[in-house]
Amino acid sequence: MDVIRLGLAGFGTVGTGLARILDTNGERIAKRLGKRIEIRRVLVRDLTKQRTFDPGTGVAFTTDPDVLVNDPDIDIVVELMGGLDTAKALMLKAFGAGKHVVTANKHLLAVDGLELFEAASASGVGLMFEASCAGGIPIVQTLKENLAGDEVVKMLGIVNGTANYILSEMTTKGMDFTIALSEAQALGYAEADPTFDIEGFDTAHKLCVLIRMAFGVDYPLDELPVQGITTVTPMDIEFARRFGYRIKLLAHAMTSDGRLEAGVHPALVPYTYLLARVGGNYNAVRLEGNAVGPIMLHGQGAGDLPTGSAVLADIMNLARQTTGRCDILDNTGFRNQPIPRADIVPPGESESKFYFRFTVADRTGVMASITRSMADHGVSIAQAVQDGEAGAKGVPLVIISHETRADAAQAVVAEVDAMDFSVEPCVSFRIL
Ligand code: NAP
Ligand code: HSE
User: Fold this and answer.
1) From CA 318, how far away is CA 130, in angstroms rounded?
2) Active site residues
3) Structural contact between residues 342 and 211, judged by C-beta atoms closer than 8 angstroms
4) What is the pLDDT of residue 304?
5) Which residue's alpha carbon is at the smallest distance from atom 1 of ligand 2?
6) Quick one: which ligand is closest to 157's CA?
7) Which residues belong to CATH 3.30.360.10 in the chain?
8) pLDDT tens for residues 19-68?
9) What is the mean pLDDT of the chain?
């Protein structure tokens, strides 16, 4: 039987996940494919590190990336290291050596994806990235193949397992943010630098990759509005619950008069929506096509086996290639290149309802000043609640607005924060 030989760059959470699946499902995979998939070499940083899984005696470990790309016996380089420079150099060398690459590296794809796809296609090799977005959910393949004939008009999703795990644990168990983050790290969900997860950057990386696949345009990462979950407190979760919502970190993108509106924000999601019920490390993506209508994909968005499963799907797709060559269509789902820049709706123009939590001194005239500021900026109030007794820290005053422009909401926050009764900066989130 033919053998597809892998060079694994990285043997951490996802690398060992892939190795475990190959170990458990190897026979089944060989039957389906008519080929065996074997790991031949593994690139790591530290050869002395204790590994949680032994890939077998036939697997050689190295710390030299060149050993992987120069080995003529390796068919596919599987990049599961993360990071930018080393991973990019490894991929370019692999393309040059005529090797396909499978990667889970959304950060690199968001930053240098266009260049890497060009380079892969120029060498006639594949650059596959199912695991880069939403872990085990087959979102890339869905956009590339299944919805290729649709015009996607809207995409909304939870695509970071760590942030969703933290918010879920805070909501359902009252867990402290820091403890929930530590647990997510221990479970292998978090990025090497977890600020990527909690500040929304990882969600932004995935959104950039998904926008290319869904809308066929490039939304530059540094222009994407991004808000993380570090300002979400147990108090906000409780207020959200009282108003009938759960707080989720969302990625959204939609076409609007030929332009593209997109961003990453924590948002209050009505608890009756499916998205509000996506818990733990699970992700979900809701897509709306002009032919298919709305569809929803749901599954584990982070972790060793779910992500390893997505990596394996790409490896098997490459192994099924009969010509041995891949072009730009195989890799990106689009024949026409280069992918044009998106015509972007300025973030300030995007509209939604907003949740504002002001922390103010409990004294006469405060509410009047805030509502005057809102009226001046055209922000209409739907509901308001003030709780608690005045204390050293002031009292929370929560206002839910009707639909309003993001720049108007920001102007209110800036104005009220500067008023002498404001005890803490206002916390504001969108409402779905
Ligand atoms: P990880 O557990 O930190 O593992 C990283 C592996 O890469 C380790 O084996 C490390 O070697 C090796 N490595 C890192 N830098 C290296 C370098 N410069 N040279 C050689 N080896 C290097 O990371 P992970 O969670 O598996 O994530 C890997 C990639 O998958 C990242 O791009 C991540 O964003 C993405 N991803 C992760 C998940 C997830 O659930 N974890 C899901 C989807 C996508 P040592 O073991 O010697 O330190
Ligand atoms: N850190 C990422 C997450 C891994 O938590 O979603 C999956 O991409």
Assistant:
1) 12
2) 206
3) yes
4) 98
5) 190
6) 2
7) 143-300
8) 999 999 999 999 999 999 999 999 999 999 999 999 998 899 999 999 99
9) 96
CATH number for the domain formed by residue range(s) 347-431: 3.30.70.260
For the chain, residues classed under CATH 3.40.50.720 are 2-138+304-319
Q: Does 10 carry a binding-site annotation?
A: yes
CATH 3.30.70.260 domain extents, the chain? 347-431
Both tokens assigned to 240:
């959200």
Query: Which ligand places an atom closest to the C-alpha of 308?
Result: 1
Instruction: Identify the weakest region by mean pLDDT among 78-82, 134-138, 259-263, 336-340.
Output: 336-340
Concatenating the DSSP letter of every residue in 240-259 gives HHHHTEEEEEEEEEEEETTE
Is 432's C-beta closer than 6 angstroms to any atom of ligand 2?
A: no
Domain 143-300 has CATH 3.30.360.10: yes
Task: Name the maximum alpha-carbon separation found in the chain.
Answer: 82
pTM beyond 0.85: the answer is: yes
Distance, CA of 88 to CA of 105 (rounded, Å): 10
So what's the architecture of 2-138+304-319 in CATH?
3-Layer(aba) Sandwich (3.40)
DSSP 343: -
**Type of residue at 309:** S
pLDDT category of residue 232 using cuts at 50, 70 and 90: very high
What pLDDT digit, counting tens, does each position of 135-145 carry?
A: 999 999 999 99
Determine whether the shortest distance from the Cβ of 200 to ligand 1 is under 6 A: no
